[in-house]
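Thread amino acids onto this structure.
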């Protein structure tokens, strides 16, 4: 966080969302989940005005993940859920996690990617997220990375109103934000950096350089995520 805040200040970024610890583990054990969430908790407790935390869960350890949700979100400082590549999110094991998150008004951030050379064994695409979201129409989901292949990702989630897209973590290609706003509406598009795997500057450029109204840019840069997190923040007595 000390390192990130230097660049946040340079780029005029007020807050970051922390969702993983120091090391990326594709199928983390229960001990690794606990360690990574503890790392995030320490960071947000030290910098409460600069960071919010997303609890990292693994559906392959379902009972433990539900306990970890209670520890980190229900009874702890975190405000949302992060799911990565341990199991495809269309799997039935995800239902219990979504139900727990929905009860707390906690958003679920799901990594999604369409890979031409084949996804990792448990790696979701936006189509997997669509299946999950249709089973839980009152829950709120974020399709991280706009599905990687953003033309496919945007089209996949377009009919499903409880999925927003996050334009983080791929090259700042011209046209991606314009298409997302056109097909989804500006209220369903969220800025993200995927830092420090990507630079803040390159990810800001996607939105700053997009040919969209300033009102849409403001929504993407903060207002949309603020509105999604508002219910759980209010329940915890915090401000967005």
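Threaded sequence (240 positions):
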């Amino acid at each position: 966080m000390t390192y990130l805040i230097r660049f946040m200040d340079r780029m005029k970024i007020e807050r970051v969302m922390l969702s993983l610890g120091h090391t990326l583990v594709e199928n983390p054990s229960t001990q690794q989940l606990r360690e990574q969430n503890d790392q995030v908790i320490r960071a947000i407790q030290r910098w409460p005005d600069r960071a919010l935390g997303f609890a990292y869960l693994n559906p392959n350890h379902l009972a433990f993940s539900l306990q970890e949700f209670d520890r980190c979100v229900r009874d702890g400082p975190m405000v949302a859920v992060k799911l990565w590549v341990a199991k495809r999110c269309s799997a039935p094991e995800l239902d219990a996690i979504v139900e727990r998150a929905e009860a707390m008004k906690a958003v679920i951030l799901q990594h999604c990617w369409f890979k031409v050379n084949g996804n990792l064994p448990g790696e979701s695409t936006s189509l997997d997220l669509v299946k999950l979201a249709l089973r839980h129409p009152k829950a709120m989901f974020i399709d991280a990375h706009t599905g990687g292949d953003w033309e496919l990702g945007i089209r996949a989630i377009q009919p499903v109103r409880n999925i927003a897209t996050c334009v983080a973590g791929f090259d700042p290609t011209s046209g991606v934000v314009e298409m997302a706003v056109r097909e989804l509406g500006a209220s369903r598009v969220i800025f993200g950096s995927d830092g420090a795997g990507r630079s803040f500057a390159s990810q800001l450029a996607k939105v700053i350089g997009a040919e969209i109204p300033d009102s849409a840019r403001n929504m993407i840069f903060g207002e949309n995520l603020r509105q999604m997190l508002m219910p759980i923040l209010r329940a915890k007595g915090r401000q967005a």
